[in-house]
Amino acid sequence: MEIMFKYSASSMYNFRKSFFPSFLVAFLRKSHIGSKPLFLPRTAKLQVSIAENIPNTKQIAVEGPNGCLSLYLPSYIDINHCSLTNKVKVSVENPMIKKQRSMWGTARSLLSNMIVGVTEYHHVTLRLVGIGYKAFIENDSFLSLKVGYSHPILLKIPDGVFVTCPSPTQIILKGCDKVIVTQFAANIRKWRKPEPYKGKGIYVDDEKIILKSAKTR
């Protein structure tokens, strides 16, 4: 026996209206990158509090062996730490709201960077490629670059960033705050960006360029 089901237009509309929103919410909660838990090492401490004098804002502080970092997030961001598993979950009040959904992954990424920074540091390595190019530390406060100019370039080392030069053509940066570390690396690189004909310049981490053949008349 063949059984057939008939649905009216109104019943199909009600089905879509009731089923798809709930399905979408469940899908967002499970698949969104912000929902992936973070691991908090036992050497680090996490504290969540209401920000003083800033309405609808939370203050997140992470402390570890390398220092302490804090972050302000909207009140609709929830940070839950399970002390048994040492896992931290980031969530939002309503993932259907675009603003909250976009901030969800951002909040998780920022918190992840904080945890890594206070426990392991963020590292950036720069390479100087070119005849006579070299770098060294001056007075523990300045990075001196000789990269083809008539005079050395002196750069003030930002607070919270540690700089070493294992060799004249290598610079290693490390620090808790990823933004400060990477920004200083960008400031160093801008003084001699890699050029595509001879490959001379300042390279960041595993940066590579494709060399071009010299122009001929």
Automatic annotation (TrEMBL):
Keyword Cytoplasm: no
InterPro entries: Ribosomal_uL6-like, Ribosomal_uL6-like_a/b-dom_sf, Ribosomal_uL6_a/b-dom, Ribosomal_uL6_bac-type, Ribosomal_uL6_CS
Pfam family, one: Ribosomal_L6
Keywords for this protein: Ribonucleoprotein, Ribosomal protein, RNA-binding, rRNA-binding
One GO cellular component term noted in the UniProt record for this chain: mitochondrial large ribosomal subunit
Domain called Large ribosomal subunit protein uL6 alpha-beta: residue spans: 58-120, 129-202
GO biological process terms on file: translation
Domain of life the protein comes from: Eukaryota
GO MF term list: rRNA binding; structural constituent of ribosome
Family per record: Belongs to the universal ribosomal protein uL6 family.
Purpose of the protein: Component of the mitochondrial ribosome (mitoribosome), a dedicated translation machinery responsible for the synthesis of mitochondrial genome-encoded proteins, including at least some of the essential transmembrane subunits of the mitochondrial respiratory chain. The mitoribosomes are attached to the mitochondrial inner membrane and translation products are cotranslationally integrated into the membrane.
Name this protein carries in UniProt: Large ribosomal subunit protein uL6m
Biological source species: Pneumocystis carinii (strain B80)
